[in-house]
Amino acid sequence: xxxxxxxxxxGTVGSGTVKIIFENQSLIKxxxxxxLLIKKxxxxxxxxxxxxxxxxxxxxxxxxxLFRDPEIKIVVELIGGLEPARTFILEAIKAGKHVVTANKxxxxxxxxxxxxxxxxxxxxxxxxxxxxxxxxxIKTLKESLAGNRILSLTGIINGTxxxxxxxxxxxxxxxxxxxxQAQKEGYAEADPSLDIDGLDAAHxxxxxxxxxxxxxxxxxxxxxxxxxxxxxxxxxFAREFGFVTKLLAMCRETExxxxxxxxxxxxxxxxxxxxxxxxxxAFYIRGDAVGDVLLYGLGAGQLPTGSAxxxxxxxxxxxxxxxxxxxxxPLSYQLSNLVRLPIKxxxxxxxxxxxRFSVLDRxxxxxxxxxxxxxxxxxxxxxxxxxxxxxxxxxxVMLTHEAKEASVRQALKEIxxxxxxxxxxxxxxxxxx
Amino acid sequence: xxxxxxxxxxGTVGSGTVKIIFENQSLIKxxxxxxLLIKKxxxxxxxxxxxxxxxxxxxxxxxxxLFRDPEIKIVVELIGGLEPARTFILEAIKAGKHVVTANKxxxxxxxxxxxxxxxxxxxxxxxxxxxxxxxxxIKTLKESLAGNRILSLTGIINGTxxxxxxxxxxxxxxxxxxxxQAQKEGYAEADPSLDIDGLDAAHxxxxxxxxxxxxxxxxxxxxxxxxxxxxxxxxxFAREFGFVTKLLAMCRETExxxxxxxxxxxxxxxxxxxxxxxxxxAFYIRGDAVGDVLLYGLGAGQLPTGSAxxxxxxxxxxxxxxxxxxxxxPLSYQLSNLVRLPIKxxxxxxxxxxxRFSVLDRxxxxxxxxxxxxxxxxxxxxxxxxxxxxxxxxxxVMLTHEAKEASVRQALKEIxxxxxxxxxxxxxxxxxx
Lengths: 433, 433
Description:
Two copies of one chain form a homodimer.
Chain A: E1 3-8, H1 12-23, H2 25-32, E2 36-42, E3 59-60, H3 64-68, E4 72-77, H4 85-94, E5 98-101, H5 104-121, E6 125-126, H6 137-144, E7 150-156, H7 159-171, H8 175-184, H9 193-196, H10 199-213, E8 223-224, H11 232-240, E9 243-254, E10 257-268, E11 280-287, E12 291-298, H12 302-322, E13 350-360, H13 365-375, E14 380-385, E15 393-400, E16 403-404, H14 405-416, E17 421-430
Parallel strand pairs in A: 1-2, 1-4, 2-3, 4-5, 5-6, 8-10, 10-17
Antiparallel strand pairs in A: 7-9, 7-11, 9-10, 11-12, 13-15, 13-16, 13-17, 14-15
């Protein structure tokens, strides 16, 4: 017996997947009990150079030939983007093929349609590679923590942002300089906005929140801020207070509702997430039974992402060899048990805050600011006021105790209108995951 | 449909398992698609007080009644130790029950017998809870990394030792003082030798090595040193060189064979494993495709270990609901593909070394020591010589470049016979996982 697969797309992840299956063929057979056979690879242009050597006979430009081939049991979609990926996935399902994909965008936007079609057709759809590259976060949430109520999930889930913030932190360079480095090193695209504005993280967080809480999440429900406006001076002040600046994606159950957001955030420097440097990703999960668990690794790249694709292929092959499909529901909860929990508006969340006020160095300024904060029920935990230019602007940096976002916004609005305030106040949230 | 289970043992892990199933019953049903029912719990003395409230009607002293009950599909062995655990597991298998166990000792000693019986009976045996508490290390090796050649696995896999070493490091106290604290806090047994002498770690490492490399490993093959002889002064000197002292369990493929050992080891303080403090465990895995992955969490305790047991129960329930057993081979490789790879003798390994010589403060001592090291092909990377008592003993601390264990032993034998050497040289290995 052999499990035959068809792959759509031979870009970075496709090449990694093929390379792993070729090189570790005999090892995979010893584990799975039978070989994996790549029968066809659909590409747009067979003459293009590739990252992996593939016999010409495997390549085809006709995607439909994969769906028509009765030997192919698993179709692996690795072209990314919304269309034609969505159509290919749905056609594969209709043809009775199981599907493996690394496509977080298509799942975040069309997941419902895809998973319902798969259920009706009695096939599996697996997507470990869509979040966290080779880190087994999807399987861990769906299987290893299946007995747990998930209290919170906090992740560093965008390698580009973490790379930029790490270099800004360790070399005291600006965002623009760090971004340029990231582009040079291949960690950021020419157009980096999907990453640095937080949308990539939001796509992934939408999927993770569904897996953790059994709730459908649309991107609009997720409050997102990227890292474009982070300045080295804030990273440096935060360090003086013992905090590290990270782009955190977080979902959390609270007594007053579900919180889901992507934000640049200060975390204590001794927290294990603070040690996640450069392009590494990490997921910090708190379960009611398991306590705190961290998964850490490379969240992107040809081979790490290929590793996740291959593990999904093997997983489905095991289902084919021993029984039916639908063994583990694709979104962790049975589709019939998925709900739509309300997500708490950002204004209602509470956390600690970091403020950097830009003020004129005049008597009474601090008391004015403190007064407005007090009126808005925001209590100050510590203050640094440094340097002074006679009559010129100086920074006052402040950490608060727990406060409500709405109060903070109201207070900053009032403070930023003071005539001694020379620039909009910088604001960062502080969390202890 | 309901999946009925029987549990043997209602100690720490048993209580945790029952608590999780009771409290998260409806959540588990939403994920699994049907409820888990605890039908019987076998205990020695039903009148004993328990960590969880259980209806009297569930308790029985007759273990055999679980095997005879046709409704019970899964038997969960949580009494630990070799016998009668082994017998109960084999009887359950013979009765056609799937088995979940948290018992690393019985697997390390009788795994072969148990897994072959399970294969012949067509039932599953799962044991996520046997290593790393709630951390999904077993599933990650067997499933998520199934496409990878494992290059190395390095773990902090004994919480008691890590707790003791952390307190010694952070508070500069002796081993004895830290052990006492560990016992007070419930992190060490009254007789702590299984933990502190490294045998518990060796049991776990034997299992992990089999999963990673498809090789049978006996405990005798594993070179083990515990942490009894670690002194605060060595921990402090190591820190001056930028290293942290951890009890590491490691298996690794090298060109000259498989290395498997448990040793107190110095690792660079910036390595992510160095930040694993107190009773936390961590597994650092290097795969040829996935790169470096870390899994981190609580390696013991009622609820974390119960979390792993429940995930195994759910896993098997899913097999029962959708198909056959034997979906994933219990030892990652198909039983017929298990081999017995030779393990490299400790004398043949190479690594960097930390030495602390106790010598009389006389001219020419360092040159004598350096001479012997040189004759044995051991090259010195750095030296600290501190303090001096006129004519009295002083420590000389030295780090080497890569050297061979056999050469090191020979050199230290010669050095320790010098009349200027006042005490046996302290030796620690240095690794960069």
